[in-house]
Amino acid sequence: MQNWIPKRHAMRKPPAGKFPRRHLALAASTLIALGLTLLLLPGENAEAKRTAIPLDLELTPSRISESVSAPEEPPVAIEQSWKEIPVENGDSLSAIFSRANLTPQDLHELLSSSSKAKELNKIKPGQKLSFKISDNGQLDAMSFQVDKLNSIIFERGVTGFTTTKMTETPEIRQRVASATITSSLYRAAQDAGVSQGIIMELANIFGGVLDFVYDVRKDDFFIVIYEELYLNGELLSSGQILAAQYFNRGKSFEAYRYINKQGEVDYFSEAGESMRKAFLRAPLDFTRISSGFNPKRLHPVFKTVRPHRGVDYAAPRGTPVYAAGDGRVAAAGYSKANGNYVFIKHGEAYMTKYLHLHKRAVSKGDRVRQRETIGWVGSTGYATGPHLHYEFLLNGVHRNPATIVKQLPAPKKVAAGAMPEFKAQIAGMQLQLRTYAAQRNYTGTGAG
């Protein structure tokens, strides 16, 4: 007999998408457990990242921030550098621009930019040019060092190059130097470390009262106070002489630099008398007299007695010859006897003559100032060797140049109304000269 189950008791298939509640709860628990397991168990990539971290790294906020890649910053513009090119012997602007990899067009554009650019045509060895050139080879700027204190800057603008003059201000220091004469002023001053420019200026200041050929004697003594110019601790050059004192044959000569209310600069004695006389005692520096004024001299070339109406100063060829006083050139030329010559008229009464010059620096009609170079020592004409023949005429009559200056008009003086100001201005220099002479124990008859 078949077993049978009534239809109402047969198993029913659940409708699609529906499960008993307990089945759903079981499935949900299983999925949650599986998810947690996957989260807690590290994968391969996670393990790789973990092992890449150093063991001693402290994960402080600052260190963590370092490990994060920062956004890229825009590139910083690199400032152009200057290329310096010194001026060498025989250099030209075109050669220097070529060494700077610039074209003739660059040079033309710069030279035509302003009148200041014309100064570039005067470049000398030892000066410097500096260039700022862009990446595409264009000249953006140039600096021309005129000297250690002055430069001219050319910068490219919208319409061409602009020009700026730059001037450094040097530090001014005072220096005191002194020396005892053993052979010549030049050698003594050189041994004391005095520059050639100061030596020449010292001779110029005392040139109206001392003849450094005739008057200088062994054991003469001098003191000079002058300026020196420094830039960044480096000595650039000597400046002005502020005061000087020269002891000669027991006499003392003092000179002080004085600036009056009109801004005029000159040197005066402590009594206010100008050191600049009408005529120099000698028209050149540091020589010896080879032949003096002598109406009965035996001529060295013709070996006959002929008057020597001047003074012969033996000096190396090329030594500068100065105008003995202010005046106008009355004659300048060449003759068989005189060689190259210059005659200067000083007012109506005086004339000076300069013979046997190597070259002349002036022409007839030129105005000249005292101590202006009018030529150079030579041996042209009837001359046995390089020397200057110098003559001095008063009202057409030859006079001895070594003695006539003592008979000339007195030099100018500081005005009476300006004497208090003059005294006040030189007081400090007077004290320095006195103090220094006392320290050297100099009495005026010899150096201590």
UniProtKB/TrEMBL annotation:
InterPro entries: Cell_wall_metabolism_enzyme, Csd3_N2, Dup_hybrid_motif, LysM, LysM_Opacity-associatedA, M23ase_b-sheet_dom. SUPFAM superfamilies: Duplicated hybrid motif. It is found in: Cell envelope. Its cofactor is Zn(2+). Residues 83-131 form the LysM domain. Its main location: other. It comes from the Bacteria. Keywords: Hydrolase, Metal-binding, Metalloprotease, Protease, Zinc. This is Peptidoglycan DD-metalloendopeptidase family protein. PANTHER family: CELL DIVISION PROTEIN YTFB, PEPTIDASE-RELATED.
